[in-house]
Amino acid sequence: MDELINDFIAETRDMLQALSGAIVAWEAHPGDRERLDEIFRFVHTVKGNCGFFDLPRLAQLSHAAEGALAEVRGGTREADTRLVNAVLAVIDRIGELIEALETGEAVASEDDEQLIAALTPEADANVPALEPVHAAEPEAKKALRSIRLSVDLLDRMMSGVSDAVLARNELARRLRDAPRDVEVEAAFERVSQCIAEIRDGITRTRMQRIDSLFAGLPRMVRDLSAELGKQVQLEADGGDVELDREMIEMIRDPLTHIVRNAIDHGIEKPEERVKAGKAAAGTLKVSARQAGNQILIEVGDDGRGIDGEALARKAKAAGLITGEQAEKMSSAQKTALVFMPSLSTAQEVTEISGRGVGMDVVRANIERIGGVVDLDSRASQGVRLCIRVPLTLTIIPALTVSAGGQVFAIPRSAIDEILRAGAEAVRIDKVGDAQVVTVRGRRMPMVALCDLLGVAPLASESERRLILIKPAGGDIYALNVAAVQDHEELVVKPAAPAVMAAGLYAGTTLADDGSPILLLDPSGMAKNAGISFDEREFQALLAPAAQAETAREATLLLLRTLDGARRAVPVALIERIEDVPAEAIRRSAGKLRVALGERIIPLAGVEKAPKEGKLRILRLTDGVSEIAYGFAEVIDIRAVALDVQPASTPGEVGGVALIDGEQVETLDPYWLFAALGDAAPAEKEVQPVCALPEGDPWMENMLRPLIESLGYRVVAAREGIEADIVIAGEGETLQIRGQSADDAVHRYDRAGLVSALSRGTKGRANG
Amino acid sequence: MAELLLIARLAGRRVAFPASAVEAVVELEGITPVPRAAGHVAGLSALRSRVLTVIDGLASLEFGASGDLREAIVVPSDGHTYAIMVEEVEDVVEPDAAPTPIKAPLGKGWDRVAIAMVEADGELILLVDPHLLIAGPAAHAA
């Protein structure tokens, strides 16, 4: 807390100093709107900061001054000499109190009331207009524990140290070429170490964990919610994100305002929340993370949201927008009115966040440092405010990689994992012109850095690495690079506009040897590569059971069979696609089988074993057994609504689906498994079998995945089929005939179904 | 006193830059290419601890690429520092007379970057705005 209060003192003193010109100017011209706004912002900021600390006098004074100035700003009051004097007296008192805080001295408080009274319009002759009391500069009686340095100076030191590092490297090169001299080397070693230490120190002076910004929040939230009779739970996340010290200072005020607003206006009182069906305690989430070349700070509450309509009405009443404009505005635009000066939806003016003025100050401050404020408000669900500030001169941990003989850097924060392309867990499939990587069941598109940059890979770059990249707000993808060089802490500087225009880079940086390195922008690369794969789509397919109740679409792999027909296979069933040599295929025990490693699995789709060359196969799995399906080539991957016309006779082709207006035969993997898979040597345990009536799309698309997820193999209910459980549908009710008992379950009673089916397996296991 | 001029050779011609716009003249040591950047961006180079964006003067005029020129003038512009590759930097001179507007079309490329004519060294030469060279041809088209 000491550090925070020191910051507060230093900051307020700085502001007072900067403000002195404005005060004089305003005194001369009380009608000067710009000066008025400046002074208003000052008292507003002081008031806001007081929320962090227990400083009732400062809070009272600044609140009173803010109130009077707001009236002037709102046009309900004239700035006459008496008011000007009264405000200036308050500002002087604030200055005195700040000095007193620092030296630990007390300032007489009797006339605080008088100062505040002088601010009211009712203050008449009884209260003498106060002359501004210019406080004498008190001598610093206590040694300061921190000093403020201009960031410019730090920048100069930083670049000086960087130059020293480069000079050292140059010297190192020369020393290597020169005849060895142990003493010179030892001295050089020492110089190197010193430079490294200085560099480290300077670097750290600029950087600060965002923790220091978050540290004051819990107390503030606690005090505010207690004062307002609200229950608020604060969740702060990402405190270890490092940010330029200057940036932190710039964000402090806006963040304070946003949090205050969220608690004051956003989160409802407990009884109101309960009535609305929410938990009595509201949640306030504050998080920070680095995203490419930006730092994102999000503040989200689950309160009532911003009333855009009310804002629009107010703006109209205040003459800020016309009725016509108001009608044309989208709800997002209406919500954004909250950023207009002098607008607030609060019914009453409160001491906490005042008059909604915070938001225009917030936006002005963020934009001044090249940042952006995004607002997302949902009625009765809450508000999410996102501050994005640039990452200029921030030190970020990065990974350097090479492609085409050139070195690039990737922000470490976006990297999920690094893999060798040939690793066992990694599979790369070529699907059309795209490449898809599967890592432990997770599928993602692959982008080759060389292709993306349009550079030719070097012949020596045979070994490939895959870097799984998760850009902010985007889906994961794999970046194929020639080699991973090193982890480095890099000072990133913005690149020139002509370089940024490529859309691939987040900035530039210098390597230790002084050569420039481009920092790649993870989301820019994804955009540039035109990645349209949606990981979630794939995930959904990999877990069909979880999605069974909603999934009506399936992703199908379109392929051309060896006899030239177009067929489709659900992607979810495909374990992998691979080429097998002709020698691996043999007819044995009446079936064609293919040897894959140490396993032999049945092969379909092929009439007879090819004599030579290679055969491309799909490896299909139902979770336990595996079969192979030989085919000629992959045509495409398509997500289509599963509207399959069942084939009249059971066989390899299960039905016909309409894809892009063309009829495509869909493979019936269940038939394939039933016909071939039974005797599969790969099958180690016998699965329970469930028989389903054929031709019912609901059962086929919805029930079937559920049953399969419970470990059953599903077969078509037909004469002579043996099954552990037979399901028959009668309207809305399902008849489940098991070995142990019979059940009737409503078709959407998932729990009932699951329990009936689980009983079936158990009964079988026992019997 | 008239503004000093830096005389350099670009695309086989003598041109003048306002000396006040030029921070330094350097020999570039190694250029890191920037894949997929605009054609007139030759790459990045380091000047002590600063990153320079290297502009190919010839390419900016749409006269082709400069090849491996090493001499460049360093120009700070809009918060970034650029190095413009030229064939040769000759001298810094005082102009014989104040710059005069250009009356005749200069031809493709030059029209975009030349701001005036100036008499120096007993010769009439073009005064080129380095910032326009930095902006490149695309900015003009936009």
* Rg of chain B (C-alpha, Å): 14 Å
Multimer state:
heterodimer
Which ranges of chain A are low-confidence, i.e. pLDDT below 50, for 5 or more consecutive residues? 125-144, 345-357, 533-552, 678-684, 762-767
- Poorly predicted spans of chain B: none
Largest interface: A-B, 30 and 25 residues
DSSP helix fraction of chain B: 10-25%
Q: What count of helical segments of chain A does DSSP give?
A: 23
Spatial gap, N to C terminus of chain B: 37 Å
Structural class of chain A: alpha+beta
Strand content of chain B: 35-45%
**Terminal Cα span of chain A:** 70 Å
Order of strands in the sheet with most strands of chain B? 8-1-2-10-9
The percent of residues in helical segments of chain A reads 25-40%
Proportion of residues in β-strands of chain A: 25-35%
Please report the total strand number of chain B as a whole number. Answer: 10
Order of helices and strands of chain B: EEEEEHEEEHEEH
Residue-averaged pLDDT of chain A, rounded? 75
Largest sheet of chain A: 6 strands, mixed
Number of strands of chain A: 35
On the 0 to 100 scale, the average pLDDT of chain B is 87
Structural account:
- The complex is a heterodimer of chains A (767) and B (142).
- Chain A has 767 residues and is an alpha+beta fold.
- Chain A contains 23 helices and 35 strands.
- Chain A has a 6-stranded mixed sheet.
- In chain A, strand 8 and strand 9 form a beta hairpin.
- In chain A, helix 1 packs antiparallel against helix 2, helix 1 packs antiparallel against helix 4 and helix 3 runs antiparallel to helix 4.
- Chain B is mainly β.
- In chain B, 14% of the residues lie in helices and 44% in strands.
- In chain B, strands 8-1-2-10-9 form a 5-stranded mixed sheet. In chain B, strands 3-6-7-5-4 form a 5-stranded mixed sheet.
- In chain B, strand 9 and strand 10 form a beta hairpin.
- Chain B is globular, with a radius of gyration of 14 Å.
- The N and C termini of chain B lie far apart (37 Å).
- The mean pLDDT of chain B is 87.
- Classes of the chains: A alpha+beta (767), B mainly beta (142).
- Chains A and B meet through helix 6, helix 17, strand 17 and strand 18 of A and strand 4 and strand 5 of B.
